[in-house]
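Is this the right way to post structure tokens for a design question? Let me know if I should format differently. Anyway, here goes:
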């Protein structure tokens, strides 16, 4: 694996433990209330039994499991072993183990990892693309996962927003995909209400233009 992706995986293994106990995600409340996808990211086809594949099991699987609560059978894929273990545990606690499967693999190997299965709905959640150096390699995998007549949905931030500075409207980072010049972050904190610093601080992120 690309050493930058290895660093990202280690970084996310650390983040997972913090996110599981954060008020930002409040997984205990999610388990109590039975959350489902917001209407803005809820395609009609997913309200009926079918299949959905999330190419990232963001928030340790809760995003993927929201689709299971609509009646779909779901498969979540993520490169973080800690996130996958957490997702399986949350599925069991939510009573959704029989409707869900979680696979630990690099998204660039998704087709092989999922044994060339195809899905009615492929959904990629917020904040997944920035961790990948190549949008083309990712898109090849996603395209192969969508069944004939199926649908692909993505929920993410506009790349212009990623290019802007945190505290002004100035353009501070590249709008374009710069595979050899990623944004390097060595912060010891994740974006939630962290209760402890990260051990593996180094991570790499890439922007991807609309074009």
């Amino acid at each position: 694996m690309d050493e930058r992706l290895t660093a990202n995986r280690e970084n996310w293994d650390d983040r997972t433990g913090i996110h599981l106990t954060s008020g930002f995600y409040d997984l205990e409340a999610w388990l109590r209330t039975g959350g489902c996808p917001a209407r803005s990211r809820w395609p009609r086809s997913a309200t009926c039994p079918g299949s959905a594949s999330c190419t990232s099991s963001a928030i340790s699987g809760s995003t993927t499991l929201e689709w299971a609560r609509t009646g779909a059978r779901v498969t979540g894929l993520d490169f973080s072993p800690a996130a996958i273990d957490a997702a399986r545990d949350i599925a069991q606690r939510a009573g959704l183990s029989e409707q869900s499967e979680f696979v630990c693999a690099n998204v660039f190997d998704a087709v092989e990892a999922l044994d060339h299965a195809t899905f009615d709905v492929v959904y990629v959640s917020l904040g997944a693309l920035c961790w990948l150096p190549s949008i083309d390699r990712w898109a090849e995998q996603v395209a192969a996962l969508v069944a004939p007549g199926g649908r692909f949905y993505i929920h993410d931030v506009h790349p212009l927003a990623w290019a802007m500075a945190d505290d002004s409207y100035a353009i501070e980072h590249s709008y374009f995909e710069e595979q050899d010049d990623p944004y390097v972050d060595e912060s010891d904190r994740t974006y939630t209400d962290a209760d402890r610093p990260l051990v593996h601080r180094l991570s790499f992120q890439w922007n991807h233009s609309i074009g």
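Format looks fine. Someone answered above. Worth noting: The chain has seven helices and seven strands. Helices lie at 3-20, 27-33, 62-68, 81-93, 110-113, 135-145, 159-163.
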